[in-house]
Amino acid sequence: MTAPLPNPADIVPLIEDAVTAPSMHNAQPWKFLYRPASGLIELYGDPDRAMPRADPDHRALHLGCAAALFNLRVSAASAGWGTDVRLLPDPDDPWLLAAANLREPGPTDRDLGSLHPAVRRRHTSRFPFAEEEIPPALLDGLRAAALLEGCRLAVPDAWHTDTVLGLVHDSEHREEMDPAMTAETLAWTHAGTPEGQTRPDGIPVDAFGPKHTGRGGVVRDFGRSRRVPGRGWATFEQNPHIVLLGTSGDRPEDWLRAGQALQRVLLQATADGLVTSMTSQPLEWPELRWTVRDPGSAMTHVQMVIRLGYGPQGPATPRRPVAEVLTTIR
């Protein structure tokens, strides 16, 4: 017997979960459309929330939207639904990134549902992590999570980690010398106290984390170009644990797979008791991005650098209400 299709009210909690996904500068560049007659949820990219200077080809926009799509899949599984997803279903509409049909759940959907408790617990942490090794079994589990979404997760050795950290610092200096990119970053960061912030997007000051002493860390310093009263300094881990998420191709469909893999890895890490942050600075410069990868690896294109460890959870960042991102076609 076929289960009845969900009504529009049933879709709201799925979207509430979906929009907790990370996106570049927390721009939340997604829109959803629900068709109750068919049980179809469509995911669109929002060009008004793109980053023309840092993300001219919309690669990061695709990653963020795909991370929201993965959250949607997890939320649907937790609510007792399966999802059949088609990526880029309409060649004539490049902003229609995916379409998800809701159906009765199967075994893989139940596995997805087990990640649901991590959806609301996952927050980016721009705080120092402990100098503590991550058990190999946990790293193997994260590699497996990426493979389930058709991507690879590489754990770089010491020389490769040093290379990536050097590229992060190089990209920071490049951004400082690029007024257009600096202005774009500032446009998505809040000023003033958390109590005075009203925007439901962007990076609030309490999510900046402390300033880095010494050489600096692997996380982007959103307070680098502005004075933040009361913001302190801290020593970050000297040997950060990073992993590289990548694909063999570098087209929009690859980016959508990578975004789902990214969120699956982040949720699995959260479920395993790890905290995470991401850095995309060296990936925003074409002349640097190709040097992030290990030349001896089968991973041709790095899509995200992820920092893992044990430490304080980052604060929740603001989210746009569902009414702003969901349209129902009756």
Summarize this, please?
This protein has 330 residues and is of the alpha+beta class.
How would you describe this protein?
- With 330 residues, the chain is of the alpha+beta class.
- Helices cover 35% and strands 17% of the residues.
- It has helices spanning 8-18, 59-78, 107-113, 116-119, 136-148, 158-176, 179-187, 252-271, 286-292, 322-325; strands at 30-35, 40-45, 82-87, 96-103, 152-154, 211-212, 233-234, 241-247, 275-279, 301-309, 326-328.
- Helix 2 crosses helix 8 (252-271).
- The longest helix is centred in the first third of the chain and has 20 residues, at 59-78.
- The two termini are 25 Å apart.
- The model has no long low-confidence stretch (mean pLDDT 92).
Q: Spell out the helices and strands N to C.
A: HEEHEEHHHEHHEEEHEHEHE
Give the helix proportion (percent range). 25-40%
Number of strands: 11
What is the overall pLDDT average? 92
In DSSP terms, counting alpha (H) and pi (I) runs of 4 or more, how many helices?
Answer: 10
Major sheet, described briefly? Answer: 5 strands, mixed
Assess the beta-strand content as a share of residues: 15-25%
Low-confidence segments: none
Structural class: alpha+beta
- The largest sheet has its strands arranged as 3-4-2-1-11
Determine Rg (CA atoms, Å).
Answer: 19 Å
